[in-house]
Amino acid sequence: MSAGVEDVPDLVIRSLRAVLPGGEGPAAVAVRDGRIVGVHAHDAELNAVEWVDLGGVALLPGLVDTHVHVNEPGRTHWEGFASATRAAAAGGVTTIVDMPLNSLPPTVTADALAVKRRAADGQCAVDVAFWGGAIPGNVGDLRPLHEAGVRGFKCFLSPSGVEEFPPLDADGLRAAMVEIASFDGLLIVHAEDPALLADPEGPGYPEFLDSRPGEAERRAVERVAALAGETGVRAHILHVSSALCLEPLARARREGVRLTAETCPHYLTLMAEEVPEGATQFKCCPPIRSSANRDELWRGLADGILGCVVSDHSPSTPDLKVPDFAAAWGGISSLQLGLTAVWTEAARRGHGLGDVVRWMAERPAELAGLRGKGAIAEGADADLVAFDADAVHTVDVSALHHRNPVTPYHGRTLTGVVRTTWLRGRVAGKDPRGALL
After folding, report:
1. How far apart are CA 331 and CA 280, in angstroms?
2. Are strands 35-40 and 93-98 parallel, antiparallel or unpaired?
3. Do the Cβ atoms of 310 and 66 come closer than 8 Å?
4. Beta carbons within 8 Å of 149's beta carbon, 6+ residues apart
5. Number of helices (H) and strands (E), helices first, in the chain?
6. Taking the CB of residue 173, how many other CB atoms lie within 10 A of it?
């Protein structure tokens, strides 16, 4: 019996390199009403309103970037929802989770979350979810934020760089963990021990790097692991830059502590030895470290100690990137470039597209509890990416959708080009079709 008109897919996308949960291979993905309604053999005979045949261009699930500083409202001239989500769509990212700081007000109360949602409404080219913040004095706001829909709570153990989002001391960290554990929420932590940080002794990158040693990260990770073990909270370490963190992270896992961790494209693709003098577009906290350290981070990914690769897109206006590493704003702009940057290095090291999808789509979706995201599977949202994995391009910062033309990737030759991004079965990036999750 033939299918009724209501059963005909809106769209079928066929690719010889579809990256599915079971592996990479030929497939035809059928979409109806924004969801994947079937994953079929490549040569399946299907009726559809629209067909797209990608040939050898890979079909990936839309990436999920759980570490994006949008900065709107309050610092929208740094980055806003319209520009950030267009950049995300151009880079194959179909869902972002917005960080609670750098906007004014920061997302540390349910009322502030409502302000953030109103600012984002109607502007977003991709789906957007939100983190809340844990700061001194707002323990009573954590449960209301959770009930209002934040995906978890970010805290700092060292100064954040903005005065309206101060760090937690030892008592404050424990109190936040106890409260968040009471409703099985998630605490995500910028983990650097402030006792081991110092002001740089000069304007250059070596002095800046020395001022934020890897030992500061390791010690903070050990502290979070110990408290997470005592309180039973789910905790996640943000933007691991130092390989010294791998051993305490692995030990915590062996001991049954509910602790996960991420790293970022810049720690996997850039290295301290190649940072040019005065090139503060490379400045971030924690810092980009040595090539040997970079190799160890890749080992941590391969071993599963690090589960996610997310951008930590933290932009600013060009005037804040003064050519002095001690004084410049710390943050990397890379939301549009994460997939191609990571794929360039991953392929060189023998990893496949399935690995990249696991690190940049599947695991981040799991971390943030985003059901229906991060995989090409029946019933999932039809968030899909046509990725030409063999194409080569040179980054031109003026062609990016980021609000400000600042990125350390300018002039770098990368492998892989995003040809098309679909959000729930419709081409993303041109119109504000994203949902607030």
Report:
1. 9
2. unpaired
3. yes
4. 113, 129, 130, 437
5. 12, 17
6. 23
pLDDT on residue 6: 65
Q: Which of 342, 354, 338 is nearest to 297 (CA)?
A: 342
Alpha carbons 184 and 177: distance in angstroms, whole number: 10
Q: What digits encode the pLDDT tens for the residues 79-120?
A: 999 999 999 999 999 999 999 999 999 999 999 999 999 999
Segment 267-322, tens digit of pLDDT: 999 999 999 999 999 999 999 999 999 999 999 999 999 999 999 999 999 999 99
Residue 5's pLDDT is what?
Answer: 56
Q: Are strands 50-53 and 384-394 parallel, antiparallel or unpaired?
A: unpaired
CB 18 within 8 A of CB 364: no
Q: Which domains does the chain have, with CATH numbers?
A: 5-56 (2.30.40.10), 62-372 (3.20.20.140)
Looking at residues 49-53, what average pLDDT do you find?
96
Listed residue (141, 122, 133, 74) closest to 99, CA to CA: 133
| Residue 178 CA: distances (Å) to CA of 143, 166, 337, 384 | 11, 19, 37, 38
Tell the residue number behind the tokens 């954040």, with chain if given.
160
Locus of tokens 């010294």: 244
pLDDT surpassing 50 at residue 404: yes
Assess contact for 436 and 128: CB atoms under 8 A: yes
- pLDDT tens string 178-195: 999 999 999 999 999 999
